[in-house]
Design a protein that fits this description.
Length: 539
Amino acid sequence: MKLFTELYTELEQTNKTNEKVEALKFYFKRAAPNDAAWALYFLSGRKPRQIVPSKKLRDWAIELSGIPEWLYEESRDTVGDGSETIALLLPNNATVDETPLHILVEKRLLPLRASDESNQYEEVISTWQKMNYAQRLVYNKMISGSFRVGVSQLLVTRALSQLCGQPTDIIAMRLMGAWEPTAEFYQTVINSEVNEAERPIARPFPFYLAHQIDFPLEKLGNINEWQAEWKWDGIRAQVIKRENQVFVWSRGEDLITERFPEIARAAEFLPNGTVLDGEILPWLDNAVQPFTELQKRIGRKNLSAKLLAEVPVIVQTYDLLEFQDKDLRGETFSQRRKTLEKVVKTLDEPAKNVFRLTESVKADSWEDLQEKREQSRLLKVEGFMLKKLASPYRVGRVRGDWWKWKIDPLTVDAVLLYAQKGTGKRSGLFTDYTFAVWSGGELVPFAKAYSGLTDAEIRKVDRFVRENTKETFGPVRSIVPQLVFELAFEAIQKSNRHKSGVAVRFPRILRWRDDKKIEEADSLETIHALLESLEGNGK
């Protein structure tokens, strides 16, 4: 636990990539394999579900620290994070808990979930009293299910790659799918020898991700060296069939086979040793539906026949990563595409209705493609994907071969109405905002946004919030309406759950409109007119 806490602290205190990688390598060189396995588990974004409810931790911390409840709440509001607040408020302790990480997690943390409250209380209090501030912070984050640290799985992969001498794509492959944090598993990850037989049949390949294009298209060269595809807004997924078993994985490495039974049934028609890459889309009457329709299925534990009928799905299929047990990722995109076309063409009708080959959009020039891109909203897509025909299927987000060319977002001028402090490094600043638009002479909440401002702008807004607070509702402050911001979002649709009657997708701050007065902000009527025009174009 001591070594892992030191790693956590070092990762949180630097923004430099190379320093993070060196810190990771330092840890993994010195950690015992069973400790390293759990560190890898947490650092790669995995975490056990909440072991002890946050409210219990809060109440026990108040009791142990001897402070009144109101002071805890004020402290929590200032710090912005419950785990850190508890670690700070508990009596100072100079001792260090030398318990190995795997013992702490396996013998003391995980068993608590099934314990009664008195046992939970005794174990948590005892552990707090043995730890210093930094260790308590990490412990609190693990026990509350809120563990996060400033490192991506890509950096963890890079560190392990440098440590054992294996290419990053091999390490990434070994970390995909479901695995248990054991010493044996960790040893397979850092194994210096490549053994294809070690891959479980359910394991997906690391996804290849595209960068947003940020330069003139002409720099891509000859348009004939590229394939343009419509960019769909769904769930990126790999569909696997190996040894007569079917698995559907999301890009977030969630096994979602049971969430989409029609895909699982269709995949039974695939040849063994096949891995498809594509986008799961809600599809009704031969047309894509809003992403929120797909969320209805994601959020349900039980999929009723009614829901399956109301929100049917397809897989817009655009790549073939494995065929007849052969890894095709090293082949060119054009070669993989030709094989994919043959696979889809030979499928039986039920499967062919689910696995639809994504369209290759032809254009004579980049200018011609630009004109075709203007059809995006009519087709309810986000723009184009541009893929180099000669490219292999790479690992992670690599510049050069795959690009996203999205249409310009929809925009609205809105007024800042509420603010709340952020979390982590921004826990002391008001960074989470609620914006409003006009309706009948009143400002009506419209959307929330958390990103888009520079650090300097955030500090200016934070100062304004503190000096112009009207009321406080827990951590939320209502603000004197004075600041106008231009918000951008990808899509808009009707919603009965929102007071405004509309919901937007991926809202973010485009710019601070300090040249506008609040009277110049947009109205709800204008937004509804925009929605109606978009729906009309889609008919």
